[in-house]
Amino acid sequence: MPIALLLLAFAPAPASASAALEAEVRELERLSVTAPWRESGAKIEALASRLDALTPDQRHRVEFVRLRNLALAGDQPAALAGLTGLLQQDLSASLRLRVHATAINIAANVEDWSLAFALLGEGLSSLGQDPGESARLLGVASYLHTLVGETGKARELALQALGLVESGSDPRALCLALGDVALAEDHARNYREAETWRHRQIEACTRAGDPVFVANGKYGVGKMLAGQGRHAEALEWGRQALAEFEAVGFEAGAWSARLVVAESLIESNRGLEEARALLIDTLRYYREQESDLAIAETRGLLARLAERSGDLAAALAHFKEAMSAAEAAERDARERRLAYLQVEFDTRLKEQQIALLQAEQELAALQVTATKRRQLLLWMGMLGLLVTAILLAVLLRRSFRERRRYRWQSERDSLTRLYNYQQVRKLGQAMFARARETGRPFTAIVADIDLFKQVNDRHGHAAGDEALRSLGAWIGEAVDGRGIAGRSGGDEFTILLETDAAGAEALLQRLRARIGPITVFGRTFGFSISSGVCQADGQAADLEQLIHEADQALYRAKHGGRDRVVCANGEAQEAHGAPAAASASAGGLVVVGSGIQFGRHVSERALSEIREAEVVFCLADPFALGMIAGLRPDTVNLGLHYAEGKDRRQTYREIDAAIMAQVRAGKRVCAVFYGHPGVFADVPHRVVRKAREAGIPARMEPGISAEACLYADLGIDPGAHGVQSLEATQFLVEERRPETAGLLLLWQVALAGDLSCTRFHAEREGLQALVDRLLRWYPPDHEVILYEAARLPIETPRAERLPLRDLPDAHYEEYTTLVIPPLARGPQGASTPVDPAPIPKP
């Protein structure tokens, strides 16, 4: 890779008291760019004896030329150290930009990428103070972006710099800007475009009288021609560039030109010995410079040369060395990329700094002195820090309060201010484990308000809320930090105590004595509570089982007449305190329906059965299951018996067995089924029949079925034409004949033809068989309806209308119902469909 050039540009120096010395300094600056560096070096020696007579600005300019010459002579590390030191001085804006540009180039040449990008960041903060020097710094930025592979950004920056200088009258600035654009196109491998820009560079630099950049332009033309395979032309341009670089004493450029000459000699298969000599000298130079990428390029050319000479062993050796150097160069490239990314990370900050500097320039005319401006900015900064500190303190304080409030709300019931269900379980687990470890007694109490629904119905929900609020306060007073008390849900409360059952009963007596009349909106009413108590006796495996036993004792208290305390496996205590035998639990079974939408369709009778049962089973949709679990956390989910690929008949037998096991155990069982429990449901009828055969009371409470919703949603009166309602597989297998003058409903159409009872999804073959059978009586274009009832109030029922022949390609859920409207006979006996009413939009 060729070494980067030192891209320098000069602006006129400010006026000095000594016009003669100023003229000499200007002449020195002119020589530094138009003549070999040795000539300007001689001029510096002539001025050395008169340095004391120079102004600080003139001395800085002379020192800059000296350091530039030092870099041109090959001692780039020393030149870089001097330039970074010079930047610590109080320099003019144009000279500072010039020093930055030169120092960045040298830092890139010696591969100190962190320093190069750091200097670039500092330099960019001064953009706009001098258009010519700003263009030069943009050129340097383009060069660095080229080195990190951002060729698009490099081209953009170079063209931006070119736009600045084209409107001016500085020929050398134009020369340098054209070189930057050409370099960006070179690294983007746009060889033809780069060659065009290099020719423009040669013309502009010739007019500017800059031999270094004229040679650089010719070197670039040669390199681009070689890249296009035009090696004979590349050789001539390379030789010209080499001669001119050597004439001005620019060693880095001369060594780069030697690589172009050597490559052209090898590819044109002439002068191979000359190429070998050039490459050996070049390799020695780049080893001294420790330039891995240039070493890799030189080694690669030596490998090609050895291959041309037939020395394959030497070619392989050079190739291996080239690969090793390329790997090292790749590491350097990663370092460059990392430094670039660090600068990109700070780009927004730099832009803000530039905007701040521009704002300071606009305010400069309004400021009396620079001291006042600095004082104003200082006070503004201190004020900003103070305001920020105050805002942070306020926000932190508010955040702390909000976190504390949210934590309290997450742990407490908002109405009673006792712990909520989750927090009672969490704290109770730790308390229960501690009691078991220490051997101390532990007792759970579950209590609720007797006939709480009547309180709401007779006195209003405000009265119900006040009853809960008052009871929560009385429970808190009774517990008084000696246990954990919380609201489990609805009107039910849970109390956990590290005491025995007698101590728990004593607490409940104090609580019941504390309960008194409540007045809401001028109306006074009273209420009582029932409680279940269970002491851990070593058989309770965990807290949940202990609370469940206390909950069962509560149900016995309810069925024993309410307003009493019942101990698990013990006696009940009535309101007046006289013991009474706990009523024996009479077993029984009631099957209830949840309706299609539980929140809307479930009856009060069904809810009562769910609350009062000892064991609750549920087979319903997730929404209904979640709401029922809210009423009864111990609800058994029968849906767990289902599994993909499992025979549903086996599932039904397992559900049947689970329900009957609890019924035969003498428990009061409530089984909740989706929709109407007696419509298209085998298990509910079976368990009711088995219970009755065993002499156990059993009954079924009706619910709202999907068929009832269908008539309402589609606007169909089943009495208008009559209805046939069949399961789709039953219709298909038993070859039922439909009555086309009436309505035909086929349930679970997605499972049509599934005799294995293992599918939960539709299969096209079964649907096509169903359509083929229906086509015996209905025309292919007969409009049918795919219906799905809405399970939530916010949902809309599905009523997709389509021709009968398109059924196999439709979308199905397990519960999709096929509605086939009747065929009506026209005047000539033709069949026409009778269209049900459309579903109104919600």
TrEMBL record:
**Which branch of life, at top level?**
Bacteria
Reaction catalysed by this chain?
Answer: 2 GTP = 3',3'-c-di-GMP + 2 diphosphate
| UniProt-listed InterPro entries | 4pyrrol_Mease, 4pyrrol_Methylase_sf, 4pyrrole_Mease_sub1, Diguanylate_Cyclase, GGDEF_dom, Nucleotide_cyclase, Rev_trsase/Diguanyl_cyclase, TPR-like_helical_dom_sf
For this UniProt record, give its keywords in alphabetical order, as a comma-separated list: Membrane, Nucleotidyltransferase, Signal, Transferase, Transmembrane, Transmembrane helix
Please indicate if the UniProt record lists Ribonucleoprotein as a keyword.
no
Pfam families hit by this protein: GGDEF, TP_methylase
What the entry lists under SUPFAM superfamilies is as follows: Nucleotide cyclase, Tetrapyrrole methylase, TPR-like
Residue intervals passing through the bilayer: 376-396
Q: Where is the GGDEF domain?
A: 440-570
Q: Which SMART domains match?
A: GGDEF (SM00267)
- Cite the EC number: 2.7.7.65
Signal peptide from the UniProt entry: 1-19
Q: Where is this region: Disordered?
A: 822-842
Molecular functions per Gene Ontology: diguanylate cyclase activity
Its protein name is: diguanylate cyclase
